Amino acid sequence: MKPTRSTSLLRLAALTAVTSLVALGTPVTTAAAAASTGGHHRPCVGSRLPDHGPARDVLRIAEQAKAELDLKSVILRVTVDGHELVTTALGESMTGVPAEPAMHFRNGNVAISYLGTALLRLVDQGRVGLDDTVERWLPDLPHADRITLRMLGASTTGLIDYVRAPGFGAAVYADPFRQWSADELVAISTHADRLYEPPGTNWNYSHANFVLLGAALEKITNTRLDVLLQQEVLEPLGLHETSNSFTPDIPTPVLHAFTAERGTYEESTFWNPSWTTAPGAVETTDICDLARSAVGIGAGELLSPAGYQQLLNPGTVGLGHATDTCPEDVCIAQTEATHYGMGLLVLDDWVSQHPLFFGYSASQDYLPCEHLAIAVSTTNGPNAPASHNAHVIAQRIAAALAPDHPIPDFG
Predict the structure, then answer these.
(1) Contact 398/405 with Cβ under 8 angstroms?
(2) Alpha-carbon torsion 167, 168, 174, 179, what sign?
(3) Looking at residue 175, what is its pLDDT?
């Protein structure tokens, strides 16, 4: 991470408080400051539309990307030094229903960054060690005596990703409302040969690692995972609009999603996300919480300095190489510039996550040296590319606001 702040962002930070109050109207309350007397907090609302300056540049990028990528909606929030630069929603949730910043959407693997942070908080508290093997908590896991908590959080166990397993995608699309159990999902990965031996010597992304990590955290703390994440991450960061659901329900107001993944453009809002991560971490959020999450997780607010360093590099740098059993697009090279941390991505100077599934795309990105947070959520139009569209927008915003710190692609 570069320690100095660019002149452009210093000016931007100085302007932010002024534009929030003058050019943009009443500022949106940050999630951490949202709680007021009586336990109430203000909803996430949009800024007054800017007519000039950095906020206008961000809005223009979003408008252009929405048209270019055929997106049904784009919701975004950008903050500098914790102050709102711009919050806006473009397009529609459903036909005739405008998208709004307060609408809830699925946050996907953003919740995995909460699992990583929760694990590191337990390490900071002296309750576990990262290199503890997991047989005491996951006795039925094959070779549990060789797999550590670090390997689960950093995704270096060698377990295949059940999402990439033959037939899994077809099964999900054949019945997108199916409720998948953690045991079913983990069994797909554990019944296949591991991609490399011994565990910890290579890197590949596997959803199974985080399902297992969630189960281990429950056993370590004797606390249900959704409760644990609420206690250790969501509440301390003030993420009042972020919550788990054990069903496909989404709290109102809802940002509806649509996809053409099954060959016809259809609504996918309430397709079942139970396969995406550990039960208890299948969450929804809003854009204000996502921006606050980018700061809180990306700055390591809840961790000791040593814990924060493990968050950014738990030993993954230098791993990732193709083998006879693991191609290079699976065992991806982990470099100093782009690598997987403890449940998140380090993309050069940025700390990121960008989920993509069932017509939803989101991106949370934080630049520590500039205190710049970008949060974007998108839904697809009929001809939208099947890619990380929200992250594309975040990359473009980063290029405009912090040109010395572009967000690179991963893998």
Answers:
(1) yes
(2) positive
(3) 98
Neighbours of 259 (CB within 10 A): 22
Residue 175 to residues 52, 162, 187, 334: CA-CA distances in angstroms? 48, 17, 19, 35
Neighbours of 210 (CB within 10 A): 23
The Cα-based distances of 226 to 87, 105, 202, 215, 291 in angstroms read 28, 17, 30, 11, 21
Cα 410 from Cα 230, distance rounded (Å): 29
Phi/psi at 29 (5° precision): -70, 135
Look at residue 40 in the predicted model and tell me its pLDDT: 54
Residue 135 CA neighbour count, 13 Å, CB half: 5
The total of other beta-carbon atoms located within 10 Å of residue 96's CB is: 6
Q: Are 149 and 134 in contact (CB under 8 A)?
A: yes
Burial class (CB in 10 A: 0-12, 13-18, 19+), 299: middle
Per-residue buried b or exposed e for 381-405, using 16+ beta carbons within 10 Å of the residue's own CB:
beebeeebbbbbbbbbbbeebbeeb
Q: Check: pTM over 0.90? Answer yes or no.
A: yes
User: Is residue 79 a contact partner of residue 85, using CB atoms and an 8 Å limit?
Assistant: yes
The better pLDDT of the pair 120, 10 is held by 120
> How far, in Å, CA of 126 to CA of 152, rounded?
18
**Dihedral sign computed on CA atoms, order 201, 338, 216, 222:** positive
Would the pLDDT of 259 be above 50?
Answer: yes
CA distance 157 to 196: 8
Q: Per-residue confidence at 42, pLDDT binned at 50, 70, 90?
A: confident
CA–CA distance, 265 with 273 (Å, rounded to integer) = 19
Q: State both tokens at 188.
A: 């797909």
- Nearest partner of 378 among 125, 89, 42, judged by Cα: 89
pLDDT digits (tens, 9 = 90+) for 134-166: 999 999 999 999 999 999 999 999 999 999 999
Mean pLDDT, the chain, as a whole number? Answer: 92
Dihedral over Cα of 209, 332, 353, 167: its sign: negative
Going from the C-alpha of 109 to that of each of 46, 57, 173, 361, 367, the distances in angstroms are: 25, 28, 20, 11, 19
- Would the pLDDT of 324 be above 70? yes
φ, ψ (nearest 5 deg) of residue 89: -135, 130
The three-state DSSP-derived secondary structure of 20-40 is HHCCCCCCCCCHHHCECCCCC
Residues in the chain: 411
Distance between CA atoms of 338 and 14, rounded to whole angstroms? 30
